[in-house]
Give the backbone structure.
Amino acid sequence: MMIFVMAGCSAQQQSVSDANSIYVYYINNDETRTESYPYTLKSEDARGAVEELLEKLSEKSPNAQYKAPLAMGFVITDYTFDNGKVVLDMSADYKKLVFTTEVLVRAAIVRTLCGSGYVKEVYFTVEGEPLKDHSGFDVGRMDSGTFISNDGNEINTYEEADIILCFASGDGNTLISVNRNKFYSTSMPLERFVVDELIAGPSGNADILYPSVNPQTTVLSVNSKDGVCYVNLSGDFLIPYGNVPTNISVYAVVDSLCALPGIDKVQILVDGVVPETLESSYEMNTDIVITLADAQAMSAAATETE
């Protein structure tokens, strides 16, 4: 399934010029895309700006052809704002949104709030519980990079993809493969999206899943050719995180990428070169990988033994 999301500038829009001018995002009546309009913040402090924008997102757009994302049959029952992090708690009616529309609602809210300069990340809950996607997984942290524009016209195409991410076990010596159903912007390669999601770490099963890659790692580039995916990472990748050794981090990246169609090998570069400690390329290694179901069964058995 492909969702075409036009998130951005219409031909009439002007560039945002002064410090208090941002864009507020709305949803078109067909619920197939978002549209942004310039808006000048009146509040001069962070909390006031967040409250002002939440109110603005509840009002009709300047153009009657567009819907306010916070006026679509649900309400925000509570919210918190602390140190750049906004948590929005939605009423139960939020779950009644068609899942494609729900993605648009999130895109409009997150891009508006994070575009203010006061908000770094946004979390959604529904009646106090973490928001889950239609496959049952936690949506988790969202920021300005979650909904990415692909060109000067800010036209986004979002596509649904089933991916596999390999996170670390508690002892750091085993990888646990997790199936995830995600919407990603086709303005970036799916391979890049997988690496970004891997670095972001697990969003659930905190008692079983642990980060397999140093979260300080920056992705410099990702591209594929002739079945080989070339991943260029910052030097933080070689710094072990927790008790996860570098070879486990390597295969976390390799096995997650090789699970994608058309990827047979992975070459990992650090700051543009292949480190002496790494091989020139890697193929999938399933010997150190177990499924999440197996990990959960092992954890339950260990608990019963205790």
About this structure: The longest helix spans residues 99-114. DSSP finds five helices and 14 strands in the chain.
